[in-house]
Amino acid sequence: MFDILFIGLSLSSILLLVALGLAVTYGAMGIINMAHGEMVMIGAYVAVLSNIWLGANLLLAIPLAFLVTAALGYGLERLVVRRLYGRLLDTLLATWGIAILLQQAIRLEFGLTFFGIHIEGLGSGLQNVPVPQFLQGTLGLFGLQLNSYRVFIVLVTLALAGLTWFTLYRTPLGMKVRAIIRNPQMASACGIDVKATNAITFALGSGLAGVAGVLMAGFRSVSPDMGATMVVDGFMVVVTGGVGSLLGTVAAAGILGEINALVAIFFNEIAGRASVLLVVILVILLRPAGLFSFKGR
Amino acid sequence: MTSLLTNYRIWAYLVFFAILLALPLTGDDFWLNRVAKYLCFGMLGAAIALTWGYAGVLNLGQGLFFGLGAYAMAMSLKLASYTSLQQGSDQPVPDFMLWNAQPGASTDLCCITPGSWLWIPFQSQWFGVAMAIIAPVIVATLLGKLIFGQRISGVFVSIITLALVLLARLLLVDAQPVTNGFNGLTDLGYFNLFGTELDPYAVTTYYVITIALIVVLTLARLLVATRAGTVLQATRDSQTRALYLGYDVPAYQTFFFAVSAAISGLAGMLYVVVAEFASPSFLDLTFSVTMVVWAAVGGRGSILGACIGAILINVLEARASETEALVEAWKAIVGLVFVLVVIWLPQGLGGFAHDMMRRLTGRRRPEALKQEVRQ
What we know:
Helix content of chain B: 55-70%
Radius of gyration of chain B: 22 Å
Number of helices of chain A: 11
Largest sheet of chain B: 2 strands, antiparallel
Strand order of the largest sheet of chain B: 1-2
Order of helices and strands of chain A: HHHHEEHHHHHHH
Oligomer: heterodimer
Structural class of chain B: mainly alpha
Number of helices of chain B: 18
Strand order of the largest sheet of chain A: 1-2
Number of domains of chain B: 1
Structural class of chain A: mainly alpha
Strand content of chain A: under 5%
Shape of chain B: globular
Distance between the termini of chain B: 37 Å
C-alpha cells in the first residue's frame, strides 16, 4: 500500500512542480500563461545543454535553468504580457502564440538550421540527460525500496514549495504580491509598484518552471513539445486548488496525484488519467472557486 | 433599399459567397478538394465566433463536437466501404473489428467485439448524418445546462471544456474494439446523396459543402441579429445586468452553445466526406486551440471574419508547406502573427475591416464596442 502511495506522491510532486509557478503567475497576476509548459521545456534543455557543453550535472543545472527561464519570463512580461492585463482570455491566446514560438525556436535551433548550422542538444529530436551516480538506484526507507531519483524529486519539490511559501508570506515582496492578489487597484493606491512587482513575480514563476524542467529531464526524454501537455495539468491543479491559494495548489496536487496513482493501479493507466479529468470537472462544477479559496474583496 | 445597398456587411457576405461559388472555374480538382476541407474549418471558425465573440464563452473543447460529428459520419461511411462488405458476412463489418475480434466470435455486427452493436443503426447513412448533428447538440445542451446553470463563466468554462475534450479523447482511444482507437477510421466509402456518389475530388462535393457553408453563415448571421442574439450580447457585456433585467441568461447561453455545437458537428461530418478519415487527433487539445487561433485572427466578433480567417490561414499554410524549409518556420510565423494580432488587433482582421469601413463611410464606432475588448 505504501509503495502505491509513494508512486502517487511522486506523481503529485511533478504536478506541483509545474503548478507552483502557475499558482504564482495566475493567482497573483491573473495571467493564464500557456507558455509555462515551454518554460519547463527550456529548463530541461538548459540541463541538456549544460551537460553537453559544460559537463555539468543535474544539480548544477538547477540554478542555471532558474536564471535562464526567470530572465526569459521577465522579458516576456515586459514585451507581451504587460500589454494584456485585465484581458484574461487574451493572455491565454497570446501566450499560446509565444509557446509555439519557443517550441519552434528550439526545433529550428534559433533559426540556425536554415544556415545549415547544427547545435548539439537542440533540434527536433529526443535528448537525454544522465542522472548523477548518487541519485541512481534505490533507497531503503521504512522497509521499502524506493527509487532514489523519485525521492530526490519529492524532496526538491517540498523545498521549492517551502521556498515559495516563504517568499510569499515572509518577505516584503511576498506581502506586495499578496496585496495585488487581493485587490490590485487598492494595492496600487497604497503605493505598491504593481507593474514592477508583477514583472518580478512573472520572472519567479517562470524560474520555478525552469527548475521543474531540469528535474523532469532526469526521468524522461526531453523534446520540444514536452511542455504542451504539462501546462494543462498544471492549470487543472491550480484551478482545482483555488486561484491565489498556495495551500490549495499543494493540496490539489497531492489529491490529484494520489487519485491518478490509485485508480491507475486498481484499474489501468487510462482510467487513472480519466478519473483525474473527471475530478477536475466535478470540482469546477460544484465549487467553481476551487477547493481552498478566500473570499475576494 | 438604399440602406441595403450601402450596407457593406451584406456586400461582404455576397462577395465572399460569389468567390466560393466561382472557384471551381479554376478547374484544379486537387485544390478544390483542399479548399473544401478548409471550408469545413471555416464553419468551425464561425462556430467559435458565435460562442466566443457573441456569448463571451471561450470553448477550448470545440474539437469534441467536431469529433462527434466526424465519427458519426465516418462510422456510416466505413460500413459503406468495400473493405467492410468483403468480410464474409451478409452484413457489412468494419475490417478492424475482425482484427480485434476474439477467436470464434461471430462475424456479425451485433457481437463481433464488445460494443460493436453500437454500429448497427449506422448502416443507414442518414442515421450517421442525423447523429453527427444530434450527438453534439445533446452533449452541448447537457453541458450548457450544467455549466451555465451554475453561473460558471470565463476561464472556468474554458478549463471544463478543455478537460472534457481530453477525457473524451482518452475514452475514444481506449475503446479500440469499437472505434479502432489511435488509428481512427480510414478506408471510408463515398457518401451517397440521392443517387450521386460524393467523390471527394468532384466538383459536386465542393458545391455541396459550399452551399452548406453559405446556409450556415447566413443562418448564424440572421440568428445573432434576432432578439435572442441581442440578449446574448448583453449577457456577454454584463451577465449580472442581463440577469437583473429578468432574462433567463443560462437558457440563452445554452441555446447558442448548442447551435455552435451543431455547426461544429456539421463541419466534422462534411470534413469526413472530403478528407475520407476520422481520427482521435480531431480531439487533440492543439486542434481545439488552433480553431480559436483562426477565429481570433479572423475576428472573434464577426462570424464572416472568423470563417474567412480559418480559410485564409489554412490556404496560406498549405502553400507554405509546399516549400520544405517553410514547414517548421510556418508554425513560428503563425505563432508570431498570433501574438501580434492579440496585442494590436484584438478584434482580428474582421474588426479591422469594420473599423476601416466605418472610417470610410464616416460613421463612428460606438463607445460600447470599444469597451467590449476589455473583459
